[in-house]
Give the backbone structure.
Amino acid sequence: MRVAPLSAVILGFACRQPVAPAAAVRDSGASYFPGSLLFAAFNSGYGYFWWTFPLHRGGTDAGVIAASGSGGQWLFVIPSLDLVVAIAAQSGAGLDLLYDGLLPALR
């Protein structure tokens, strides 16, 4: 039986079965390269298909794991807060929303 990747994730979640080894998930969210100039003001890094950002603006940790889409779409994963946030917007201000709105509201 062939199962599409998204379906495999949904089925794995529903059945409480891992869909990837824990080490692969952990390693995919690590920062291996300096981030792009586009996100330089946020002290970004880049791993395996994921951006990393500090939990606090200007910090040096990689506490925020993020995916960036077209036109302001963002997915933020913040393991220390047990939080996942999806943003669908028409502006690219997702990082400003994260640092100036969302994270301060959670503190």
Remarks:
- The chain has two domains: 1-26, 31-106.
- The mean pLDDT is 80.
- The longest strand covers residues 64-68.
